Fold this protein.
Amino acid sequence: MPSFKPPVLGDPLPGAHFSQEAIRLMRLRRSAPADTLGEPGPDADSLCVILEIAARVPDHRRVTPFRFVVFEGDDRVKFGSVLAASFQANEPDAGDDRVNYERSRFERAPVVVAVISVVDPDHRTPQWEQVLTAGAVCQNMLIAASAHGFAAQWITEWYAYDEAVCARLGLGANERIAGFIYIGTAKEDPKERARPRLDRLISKPFQQ
Ligand SMILES: Cc1cc2nc3c(=O)[nH]c(=O)nc-3n(C[C@H](O)[C@H](O)[C@H](O)COP(=O)(O)O)c2cc1C
């Protein structure tokens, strides 16, 4: 990859960057189910750029209403005990196979990034807008992963909403999980899924 120097504060930037490749990437982007992901994942440098791009989102009044928790290597395995314990507490009758599946959720991909939405309730920027920014972070991360040649999926599953899991991740009262972004290499290529019809989504303000 040619060397790239990220811009610093005040650098002049072009307002647009025409890229046929980017158009193609966005038109073909698809999630790959976490179950189909495997090695390799992004190396440290690539992951750093993926997170840099993810964080480069519109953000009304620069609140930075998000943060990341990165799971890699053994941390994915270690966190499995948190998932298993919480799952068992919720589903005491679950069999070992199911509990072990829950334990290994983060092991499905080489890298899992928890995107935490951090809302400042006292800020002038409406909370809704702060939450939207965290969503944009997740989508940017999917696109950045794809541009690096990695497949990814934005997932919440049950553990994004589980109190014990959120507590173990250190989430404060103003924090929620926007998503877990699983990043790796797809063992099988996904197929196109049904897409909404654009003509049913678009209206004009003065049409009958
Ligand atoms: C906030 C959010 C949470 C999601 N959670 C899950 C999930 O828990 N499990 C799942 O299979 N897909 C989940 N998805 C859907 C996938 O990320 C993905 O959008 C879907 O597989 C469609 O694929 P596509 O991105 O190629 O359109 C979620 C999407 C969003 C936006």
Observations:
- The mean pLDDT is 97.
